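Moderator note: this is an archived Q&A kept for reference. The question asked for a predicted structure of one protein chain; the sequence and the answer are reproduced below.
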Amino acid sequence: MEDPNAQQQGAAFPAPPYYFQRYTQPNLALLEKTKSDPTNPDLTTALDALPFPVLALEPPPPIKRGICWMFGRPWPVQDTLATLSEQGIEQLYPKGDIDRVKELKKLNHSAIFNFLDLVHVLSTSPGEFATKVDHIRVIFINMHHILNEYRPHQARETLRLMMNDQLDRKRKETAALRKTCADLRKQLAGLRALEQDRLVVPAGATASENNQDVDMAPATPEAASTSATVTEAGENGTAIGGSTSVTKKNAEAMSRMMQLCDTIE
């Protein structure tokens, strides 16, 4: 009968290990007390009552070298590509620097030739097919090993393409933002010109020119003073009446929008 532990190791969703039941609150508190004061005689009774050493609750250090087991298979801690000789496989191509494309083509031709030979063996001597199947297996393992040697180069090229795509996308987004800011600047400039034309009296204009219904000769000194104030405001090109605060608020809003465009750019 198969070992239950082996079944759990090979399962896609293995159950927790049996020792997870040891991690109770009293046991963890006892572990902390033992670590803080290992010579405390008051802990002797509690430690003797445990069926396992209390320090076994400490997690093991990470494995830095060698192999580790996962899903019932050994895996090297250092992720390196093992050579064919380390795997016990015959290497069919020369050692050292090779032309991988050329060697892959040669192995591909050998695989086709051995497959045709296998078909011939099956038709003439079916009992000898195992040798040819093993030859084909070794050929494909060699081809797969050469392809695996391309993985670092493939990873670098994939990363380069991803970074280029991100850079192109950010450049397009930046160009779109700058175009939007330029359009917004034009609209703000047009609104500012319209606001000035609407709320500011042209320089050199007099109150009598803007209002023909006003009597040219003021009846009282107070009226004369008011007329002089309006005339002076018209000559200086300033806003009339209570529109000054509205113009100031609009100017502040436009300035904030311009600052926002500067920040985006």
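Archived answer notes: Residues 205-242 have pLDDT under 50 and may be disordered.
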